[in-house]
Amino acid sequence: MGSVEPLSPLSRWYLYAIHGYFCEVMFTATWEFVVNFNWKFPGVTSVWALFIYGTSIMVVEQMYLLLRNRYGTAVRCLLYTLWTYAWEFSTGYILRQFNACPWDYSQFDYDFMGLVTLEYAVPWFLASLIVEKLVIRNTLRLRFEEGGDPNAPTAAIRAVCKCLHSKKN
């Protein structure tokens, strides 16, 4: 059996990017339903969301690793939310220079340049809580088995089979 190693940064970035992309589509679909009562649930995003979410959650991961023993969850999530606003503003500002920014919050009451809005503070805070507690913590626990046979059953499946077999006898 080969050695077991944590996921590479690129693998974690990919998982974070896909997670963010999926959540963006689900959020916009839900928003469309709540605001316009659209039963088609059309969720939309931009290909830029892969880079934006993947990179942002990698930064949040590093913040989590540095802050987890120093501050409570609420303080960490507040810091993640502040990071999210800074990242959303900067990436939006850069993308706007190329007419490629996929969001515009100018219709909100508390927006800044249409790139960020205070109305999303609570959703971003809750999203950061979910990202820390579910996404980052579980992603950091994932492992690759070097030289492992992709067709061989995993240790968990072998353990269940062994348990079932012993109960039969």
UniProtKB/TrEMBL annotation:
Where is this gene product found? Membrane
Q: Does the keyword Transmembrane helix apply?
A: yes
Q: Which Pfam families does the protein's record reference?
A: ABC_trans_CmpB (PF06541)
Question: What InterPro entries does its record include?
Answer: CmpB_TMEM229 (IPR010540)
Q: Which GO terms describe its cellular component?
A: membrane
Q: Which UniProt keywords apply?
A: Membrane, Transmembrane, Transmembrane helix
Spell out where the chain crosses the membrane.
12-34, 46-65, 77-95, 115-136
Protein family: Belongs to the TMEM229 family.
What is the protein's name according to its record? Transmembrane protein 229B
Give the species this sequence originates from: Latimeria chalumnae
Could you read off the lineage of the organism from its UniProt record? Eukaryota, Metazoa, Chordata, Craniata, Vertebrata
